Amino acid sequence: MSAPIDGTHEAALRSWVDSANVPDTDFPIQNLPLGVFGRGGQPRSRIGCAIGDQVLDLEACAEHGLLRGLPEDVEAACRTASLNGLMGLEPRLRGTLRHRLSHLLRAEGGFVTARTHTEDVLVPQADAEMRMPADVGDYTDFYASIFHATNVGRMLRPDSPLLPNYRWVPIGYHGRASSLVVSGTAIRRPSGQTAPRRDEPPAFGPSRSLDYELEVGAFLGPGNAPGTSIPLAEAEDHLFGLCLVNDWSARDVQRWEYQPLGPFLAKSFATSLSPWVVTAEALAPFRVPAFSRPEGDPEPLPHLRHEDDAARGGIDLRLEVKLSSETMRREGHPPIVVSQSNLKDIYWTLAQLVAHHSSNGCNLRPGDLIASGTVSGPEKENRGCLLERTWRGSEPLTLPTGEERRFLENGDEVVLLGHCARDGFARIGFGECRGVVV
Ligand code: MN
Predict the structure, then answer these.
(1) Which residues contact 226 (CB under 8 A, 6 or more apart)?
(2) 252 CA distance to ligand 1 centroid (A)?
């Protein structure tokens, strides 16, 4: 079952951290996302919780006895340098941390507060160097948006854009964990092989069609033993939280290499993650029914079908991509919005992806990352990558400087944003996933 709505979601809650009470902040007291950061240039990493424009340092909280009374495993995990320990705990245990953080940061009525230790436990986000939130053992990228799959398929196979397996089996490939990088890391343009021109050998050189992909990543919680599988009804308990993912892609390299085994070097050079993990608990108010399959589409097979998943398996998460060229930034133009979509439009729920991934007995582990695949929607402005947005370069975008974009140029900066909003609840945001092409 997905996490319930409780007192930590009440819209009326206020924090003694003033910046958390500003209406459009990504990090009000109802969010409480977790991340890993370094303090003042120190090499040591610590776990933090974003609150307004500050970070609450969980190790410092533990030092001051502010985590006392939590289950031992929870406090011990908060003193480590990655989220893997917390991710490995069952939801009931990790839920105690959310409640404690909510009390520590409340403006009033908390039986325990971090306010009396402000100088030790709060770090301005501007002074916190964000790092990878977890040691990711394995990274799997799916292809869960039927709009994305259909658009890409139409470019390759106009007559039968969607392959016959798509509506039955969640399509994915094993990505590369070693080249996952945190937001802000510069992205070096990859080189690779591209398709031969007539009667010539293929060429090797810098990619000429570098793209972004707007995706959502899910960090996995407790794993499963090898040879066992996670039933769909239990899959939500294995989802720890979400972040934004930019699956940078070299389209020219991809086109030449992807058959017959799928993407490889076109994707494995870099994948950017937003640093704050918005927990499954924080997302409870924004759960919606799973994507409703068009008339005539088959029901999923029994192991990928469950009434709770159909009723609450979706997440209303609004996504956006902003782009700016070096010239735009130099001339003072704000970035332009190039894609807007919503996670609720993906064909397979995150829980279905977990159930499918483990259905063959593959063991998933705490801190593993699964990504949705490019999240596109039905309209042109919902297309979550440039390949779709410019239709393989045939409909270039015009920037405010008059520059044209088919694919990314050096100096281009891509920023992914995401937030959840619903009447009666506080808006929560994901922060940003930023990268400049160099
Ligand atoms: Mn992808």
Answers:
(1) 361, 362, 363
(2) 15
pLDDT at 110: 64
Question: What's the distance, Cα to Cα, between the start and end of the chain in Å?
Answer: 44
Name the active-site residue from 9, 148, 238, 357. 148
Task: Please give the Cα distance from 438 to 418 (Å, whole number).
Answer: 25
Write the pLDDT tens digit of every residue in 363-376. Answer: 999 999 999 999 99
DSSP assignment of 71-86, as one string? Answer: -HHHHHHHTSSSTHHH
Q: How far is the CA of 115 from the centre of ligand 1 (A)?
A: 42
Please give the average per-residue pLDDT across 326-335, as a whole number: 98
Angstrom CA distances, 29 to 52, 53, 102, 374, 436, stand at 8, 12, 7, 30, 31
Residue pair 261/174 in contact (Cβ under 8 Å)? The answer is no
Quote the tokens at residue 173: 């490939």
Burial of 292: CB neighbours in 10 Å, binned 0-12, 13-18, 19+: exposed
67/183 Cα distance (integer angstroms): 29
Is 148 a known active-site residue? yes
Note the pTM of the prediction, 2 decimals.
Answer: 0.98
